[in-house]
Write a structure and sequence with these properties.
The structure holds two protein chains of two kinds.
Chain A: E1 5-7, E2 10-14, E3 19-24, E4 30-38, E5 45-50, E6 56-59, E7 62-67, E8 72-77, E9 86-94, E10 101-102, E11 106-111
Parallel strand pairs in A: 2-11
Antiparallel strand pairs in A: 1-3, 3-8, 4-5, 4-9, 6-7, 7-8, 9-10, 9-11
Chain B: E1 4-7, E2 10-13, E3 19-25, E4 31-38, E5 42-51, E6 54-57, E7 64-66, E8 76-78, E9 87-94, E10 103-104, E11 108-112
Chain lengths: 112, 113
Amino acid sequence: ILNVEQSPQSLHVQEGDSTNFTCSFPSSNFYALHWYRWETAKSPEALFVMTLNGDEKKKGRISATLNTKEGYSYLYIKGSQPEDSATYLCAFRTGTASKLTFGTGTRLQVTL
Amino acid sequence: NAGVTQTPKFQVLKTGQSMTLQCAQDMNHEYMSWYRQDPGMGLRLIHYSVGAGITDQGEVPNGYNVSRSTTEDFPLRLLSAAPSQTSVYFCASRRDSGGDTQYFGPGTRLTVL
């Protein structure tokens, strides 16, 4: 079973703060790393799919980086807003299987 | 496109009953999968399929069956429901290549009494 770890488990920041989370995954046999945003009572929504070492992706105030050699990805949120409150999931795919293995997520709460 | 649809949204079963959770997608995606979400456990893969006629087990397959007779549909069958199967179930689909986004259905909340 592949081990995908996310830290921290939860985070509470104030509006306007910038924050980042980590996703760690096995560095061998890498194929793709997915990031999702998951609001309570909804279904996960894709943010990024990253496939190349050194990839950087950006969507508005949210960005992500990827280091496949050392097995980690960072998700950054600049100037957090209350609507950013959600659980952020990462998921890892190897080159020999189609399935995604998910981490348990980082739960972000942004208050005014 | 409707995307990924799931029915029902909510279901209550008694222990020992069987039922089928429906999942359909209209994006011509090869890959489809079923996850369950439990508190503190994240999303755990139950079964997945890389195309019509091909299915495989995920992390937690016991107590569940799947089949994939068409590209569009991927039903999940609970053979004899148990309280441990109380969970939220998500179906997802994507094209079967590394860089493609996976789309999730709205979920089915199942309670087994």
